[in-house]
Amino acid sequence: MEPAPNPRVGVAVFVLNSEGKFIVGKRKGSHGAGTWALPGGHLEYGESWETCAERETLEETNLKIRDVRYLTATNEVFEAERKHYITIFMGSVCEEGAQPEILEPEKCEAWEWVSWEELTTFGKAGGQFESRELFKPISSLFVQRPDFRV
Ligand code: 8DG
Ligand code: MG
Ligand code: MG
Predict the structure, then answer these.
(1) ipTM of this predicted structure
(2) Phi, psi at residue 48, to the nearest 5°?
């Protein structure tokens, strides 16, 4: 058997607007395709969590964020893909009225603004977002950090 791969660090970003809504995107082309996730990506060598959050958000949405802060973290093993992630969830705000752009169309189908309450109804029968599936690390956030709120 192949040696076990090392855990990697993912940084996921809640980008909030003045209404307290944040951006979610439909993933494309990599693991979790078709599911909804936050802007974010892999922590690079030497980077702080804050810098990674700013860089990934800018690369993926063209939004400049501020008040970037640590919120919580999860530990997730994707057995089938033999991937293990520590995910650092960061909070931030964007400029009033700013809108996300799809800068990586090969990785993202759409960006949308949702509230925390709406996010928790993704995939729930009978709800407005019934047909939407959450990226697994986000469902894990609900399980591993049940008291967490943005
Ligand atoms: P990069 O090459 O730009 O560095 O990476 P990426 O292509 O943008 O990576 P990604 O898959 O978007 O994010 C890296 C990992 O971070 C992802 O595979 C698992 C973890 N992660 C979570 N939750 C979230 C989330 O809500 N959004 C994103 N984008 N990543 C997340 O655990
Ligand atoms: Mg990225
Ligand atoms: Mg990404």
Answers:
(1) 0.91
(2) -85, 160
